[in-house]
Write a structure and sequence with these properties.
The chain has 240 residues and is mostly helical. The protein has one domain (7-103, 110-226). It is 68% helix and 7% strand. The chain has helices spanning 11-14, 22-40, 59-73, 75-101, 111-118, 122-149, 155-179, 185-205, 207-221, and strands at 7-10, 44-47, 50-53, 223-226. Strands 1-4 form a two-stranded parallel sheet. A hairpin with a 2-residue loop joins strand 2 and strand 3 (50-53). The longest helix has 28 residues, at 122-149. Involved in the import of queuosine (Q) precursors, required for Q precursor salvage.
């Protein structure tokens, strides 16, 4: 049930109407996505006996924001954000490759360190892009469908349930595509499962924050968007 002052609206009726905070949410989503892939994707860490990719520190925030985008603005606008992130990741990968390949100035001693940090292989780039694309769309689709099935109730169930699916798809694609053959099979499976569990746990822990952000944005926009009649194909960027 919608809060007082918040009007339930079907996504198709919303159309291309401008919304107050959508652009800010998109910018935050893309920024978190780029940082998580640039800084933490390829580093393994072990803390308290648990081995995980360092991107776990803030990558789940991207999924939380993806949940917020779908819940507040609907699947079509979340889909546009996914495509914006997809394009930004490809551009980042291209420019990282160009910058790493530029010949270093004579006497500059840090080329090898720069290559180690920013010289991701084509496998990691491909794995990141493929996993992000499939995982985010799975996450958004499940959340939007669950919102219809629950008639907008039980937000916690929708956010956690969609993350279980979305992060599962992401992890199943990323780690085997990126590291199979370079890591041992045991490492791939261990990190894949551990990261999935930690990301879902993060989502559960951040549920109060998700409720606060979703509620605040819905009140600010005055709308609660439901995806009745939405075309759920991922292969478009239109707002319908």
């Amino acid at each position: 049930m919608s809060e007082p002052g918040v009007r339930k609206i079907d996504a198709y009726a919303l159309g291309a109407r401008p919304l107050r905070y959508f652009d800010f949410c998109m910018a935050g989503f893309v920024a978190i996505l780029l940082l998580s892939n640039l800084i933490g994707a390829a580093k393994l860490s072990t803390v308290g006996g648990f081995t995980f990719g360092a991107g776990i520190l803030f990558f789940p925030l991207g999924y939380v924001l993806g949940d917020v985008l779908t819940e507040v603005y609907g699947y079509a606008r979340a889909r546009r954000c996914v495509w914006a992130g997809f394009g930004a990741m490809l551009f980042m990968a291209l420019m990282s490759w160009v910058v790493v390949k530029l010949p270093p100035a004579e006497g500059w001693p840090d080329q090898k360190a720069y290559e180690a940090v920013f010289g991701s292989t084509w496998r990691i780039v491909f794995a990141s892009v493929a996993a992000f694309w499939a995982g985010e769309f799975a996450n958004s689709f499940v959340l939007a469908k669950m919102k219809l099935l629950t008639q907008g109730k039980h937000l916690w169930m929708r956010t956690i349930g969609s993350t279980v699916v979305g992060q599962g798809v992401d992890s199943l694609l990323f780690y085997p595509l990126a590291f199979y053959g370079d890591w041992t099979n045991a490492q791939v499976v261990t990190v894949m499962i551990t990261n999935w569990l930690m990301k879902v746990t993060w989502e559960a822990v951040l549920t109060p924050v998700t409720y606060m952000v979703v509620g605040g944005l819905k009140r600010a926009e005055g709308l609660d968007v439901f995806d009745e009649g939405t075309n759920f194909t991922p292969f478009r960027a239109s707002l319908s």
